[in-house]
């Protein structure tokens, strides 16, 4: 494509060749990887001249010499707990750590497992559905993930299966400039229901570039939570693809507070009538963190509903980027789609860029979008202080009031409570500066 | 308990208060009347410590301490209360939560432990009855969507819960019908005691039928033009502020 692409691809080409030489897997999967790598080479490393990457500065990541992920031992205490019985898979540097995981009995034909634990026969099941969903076709990191994933979580629930206990997937990286490409493949057959919590954590500097593929059959329901608490030096550049059939409901909660750069690209295709999707995003940023969401929700069929609510709270020199597109195809009449992005700046140096967009080709729809960015209300601050509440506490109260409805949309109580505590601890930072 | 001497203050570079002297002793209730724009709210805000109000000369002592050195929350914790002319709406912060945070902030300042949940609940209910406030207001966000009357009542309710030593009421009566006005007055009167002081800012003599002041001051152009007993309020009602270069009708309309 561009002249510079091969330059950057070169180390990747070597890495890919070395990687492929070590893998022992079916030709179907190998073929998938080669095609994805070719796509990555064609797309090239994103530059800020590209529309979707204008506000994402990858230069500090590009300057690193990334290392192949390797095994590491870690202290189980560093891993997040959900506080309730859960199907738990822990991945260290992209590989399943069975000793840290706790599998629970499942019905016949249901799977909650690591790719690496799956039998070859099951892997053959996976191959045709891996990378089969539309979306993120032009995302170089999605292509890289398909080329280079070492392991991943495979969740498959047959028709009508309802799993009450949450599925807790923990991805932990141990730094050393490692690059990890964890994969998640989730398929809910018709009427199946699941609650999934995906946690990203780590220590030191690394690149975590996960890719999740979420497929919902007719009437399936998914509560999906992504909790991004990467280490402060980490780069997180991930993608999520969602495909929804008739009357399915996907509630996606995206929480982000870690990483020096954290970007998630999300594409949702509402591909059946009466499908519904909620995306609830909350980003906390401080110092020079960047939290970045790129979102495309595509209504392909009539009577779909979608709501995206993104909020960010930014302190220090933190930045938030929100680029959201709702696309309503001509056939998708009676679509009801709303999108809002609200940013609260706690310092004069913090910055938010919101770009909510609508493309509507159908004529009988209800669509709306809006965005706002502002500082704390000084009148409210004074009102609270005039009642004896300290400046720090007054600000914390006001920020909490701003962020709280994002947390209240999370119905998984133990997670919501944990995030509320995290928010409270974050607010107690005495670095919230005055204006 | 509150001593204001030669107070000068500016807002955005404009001199609004031009040398105010006022001494209020424990147990006393003073009323400040005056035409619109004369600086009544400016005085209230300077006492409460609002940003943007710059004291250029003079001093304020509260129970002997230099009030102007304290930040707003310290003033409140020391026992000062301002009932706002325009109470602020705070979406997302429940009234009850806000009150508890305020009560505990004051207790912490005094070196006391957090309020006991049952005691707090009893206090809240007792004070709600006092200002005839509906319990549903506790769950609602602070002042959000409240009518003008509800907002003023909420101010008195907060005062009744916090039990300050000195309260400034900035036009707590404006916009109230006679029943609501009585509720507000009852709330204030219930708190009057030999230890407490009040500074009641009002535009109308009407409120002073219910909250009978010990002293009345007329504020004009940032100065106390006249002081007297409660009969001064009646006189003003009849004559307006004409003597002070203001027409009574104008003052009333502007309220
Ligand atoms: N926050 C402010 N910003 C700008 N001007 C102000 C502010 N507060 C008061 N003023 C000005 O100060 C003067 C006195 O206002 P104020 O104290 O509100 O009068 P009152 O309460 O007696 O009606 C007015 O001219 C008003 O415009
Ligand atoms: Mg006023």
Can you tell me about this structure?
The complex is a heterodimer of chains A (435) and B (255). Chain A has helices spanning 5-22, 27-43, 59-62, 120-129, 140-148, 378-385, 391-408, 413-427; strands at residues 67-68, 87-92, 95-96, 111-114, 152-157, 167-173, 178-180, 183-188, 193-202, 206-208, 211-216, 221-229, 235-244, 249-256, 261-270, 276-285, 290-299, 305-314, 319-328, 336-345, 351-360, 366-375. Helix content of chain A is 23%, strand content 37%. With 435 residues, chain A is α/β, with parallel strands linked by helices. The longest helix of chain A has 18 residues, at 5-22. Chain B is α/β, with parallel strands linked by helices and 255 residues long. Chain B has a single domain (2-246), classed as P-loop containing nucleotide triphosphate hydrolases (Rossmann fold). In chain B, helix 7 (178-191) links the parallel strand 9 and strand 10 (197-201). The chains are: A alpha/beta (435), B alpha/beta (255). The interface between A and B is medium-sized, with 23 and 30 residues. The complex binds adenosine-5'-diphosphate and magnesium ion. Adenosine-5'-diphosphate is lined by residues 11-12, 16, 34, 36-42, 52 of chain B.
Query: What oligomeric state is this?
Result: heterodimer
Q: Gyration radius of chain B, to the nearest Å?
A: 18 Å
How many helices of chain B? The count is 10
Give helix and strand order of chain B, one letter per element, not per position: EEEHEEHEEHHHEHEHEHEEHH
Domain module count of chain B: 1
Shape of chain A: globular
Most extensive interface, residues per chain? Answer: A-B, 23 and 30 residues
Give the overall shape of chain B: globular
The assigned CATH architecture of chain B is: 3-Layer(aba) Sandwich
Describe the biggest sheet of chain A? Answer: 12 strands, mixed
Largest sheet of chain B: 6 strands, mixed
- Beta-strand proportion of chain B: 25-35%
Quick summary:
The complex is a heterodimer of chains A (435) and B (255). By secondary structure, chain A is α/β, with parallel strands linked by helices.
């Amino acid at each position: 494509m561009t002249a510079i692409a091969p330059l950057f691809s070169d180390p990747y080409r070597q890495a890919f060749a070395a990687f492929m030489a070590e893998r022992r897997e079916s030709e179907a999967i190998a073929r998938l990887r080669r095609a994805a790598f070719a796509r990555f080479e064609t797309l090239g490393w994103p530059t800020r001249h590209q529309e979707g990457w204008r506000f994402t500065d990858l230069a500090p990541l590009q300057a690193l010499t990334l290392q192949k992920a390797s095994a590491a031992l870690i202290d189980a205490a560093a891993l997040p707990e959900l506080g309730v019985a859960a199907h738990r898979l822990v991945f260290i540097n992209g590989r399943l750590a069975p000793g840290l995981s706790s599998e629970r009995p499942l019905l016949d034909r249901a799977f909650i497992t690591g790719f690496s634990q799956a039998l070859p026969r099951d892997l053959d099941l996976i191959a045709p559905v891996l990378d089969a969903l539309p979306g993120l076709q032009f995302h170089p990191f999605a292509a890289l993930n398909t080329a280079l994933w070492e392991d991943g979580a495979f969740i498959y629930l047959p028709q009508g299966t309802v799993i009450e206990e949450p599925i807790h997937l923990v991805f932990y990286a141990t730094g050393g400039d490692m690059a990890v490409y964890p994969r998640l493949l989730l398929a809910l057959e018709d009427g199946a229901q699941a609650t999934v919590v995906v946690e990203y954590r780590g220590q030191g500097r690394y690149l975590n570039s996960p890719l999740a593929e979420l497929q919902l059959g007719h009437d399936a329901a998914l509560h999906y939570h992504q909790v991004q608490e990467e280490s402060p030096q980490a780069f997180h550049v991930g993608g999520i693809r969602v495909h929804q059939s008739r009357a399915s409901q996907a509630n996606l909660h995206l929480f982000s507070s870690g990483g020096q750069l954290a970007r998630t690209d999300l594409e949702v295709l509402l591909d059946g009538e009466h499908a519904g999707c909620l995306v609830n995003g909350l980003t906390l940023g401080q110092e020079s963190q960047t939290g970045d969401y790129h979102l495309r929700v595509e209504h392909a069929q009539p009577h779909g509903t979608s709501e995206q609510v993104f909020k960010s709270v930014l302190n220090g020199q933190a930045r938030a980027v929100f680029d959201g597109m709702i696309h309503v195809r001509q056939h998708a009449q009676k679509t009801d789609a709303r999108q809002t992005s609200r940013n609260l700046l706690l310092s004069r140096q913090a910055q938010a860029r919101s770009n909510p967009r609508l493309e509507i080709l159908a004529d009988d729809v209800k669509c709306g979008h809006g965005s706002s960015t502002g500082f704390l209300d000084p009148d409210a601050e004074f009102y609270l202080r005039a009642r004896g509440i300290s400046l720090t506490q007054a600000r914390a109260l006001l920020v909490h009031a701003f962020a709280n409805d994002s947390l209240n949309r999370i119905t998984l109580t133990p997670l919501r409570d944990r995030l509320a505590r995290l928010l409270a601890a974050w607010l107690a930072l005495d670095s919230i500066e005055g204006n | 308990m509150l001593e204001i001497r030669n107070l000068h203050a500016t807002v955005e570079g404009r001199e609004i208060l031009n040398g105010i002297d006022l001494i209020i002793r424990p147990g006393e209730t003073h009323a400040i009347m005056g035409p619109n724009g004369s600086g009544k709210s400016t005085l209230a805000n300077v006492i409460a410590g609002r940003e943007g109000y710059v004291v250029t000369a003079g001093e304020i002592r509260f129970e002997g301490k230099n009030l102007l050195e304290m930040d707003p929350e310290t003033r409140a914790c020391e026992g000062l209360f301002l009932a706002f002319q325009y109470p602020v709406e705070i979406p997302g912060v429940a009234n009850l939560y806000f009150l508890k945070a305020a009560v505990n902030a004051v207790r912490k300042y005094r070196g006391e432990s957090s309020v006991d949940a049952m005691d707090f609940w009893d206090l809240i209910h007792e004070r709600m009855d006092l200002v005839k406030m509906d319990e549903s207001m506790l769950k609602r966000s602070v002042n959000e969507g409240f009518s003008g009357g509800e907002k003023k009542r909420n101010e008195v309710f907060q005062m009744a819960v916090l039990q300050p030593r000195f309260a400034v009421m900035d036009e707590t009566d404006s916009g109230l019908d006679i029943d609501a006005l009585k509720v507000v007055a009852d709330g204030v009167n219930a708190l009057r005691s030999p230890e407490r002081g009040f500074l009641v800012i009002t535009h109308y003599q009407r409120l002073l039928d219910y909250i009978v002041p010990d002293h009345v001051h007329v504020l004009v152009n940032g100065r106390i033009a006249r002081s007297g007993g409660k009969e001064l309020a009646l006189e003003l009602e009849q004559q307006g502020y004409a003597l002070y270069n203001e027409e009574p009708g104008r003052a009333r309309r502007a309220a």
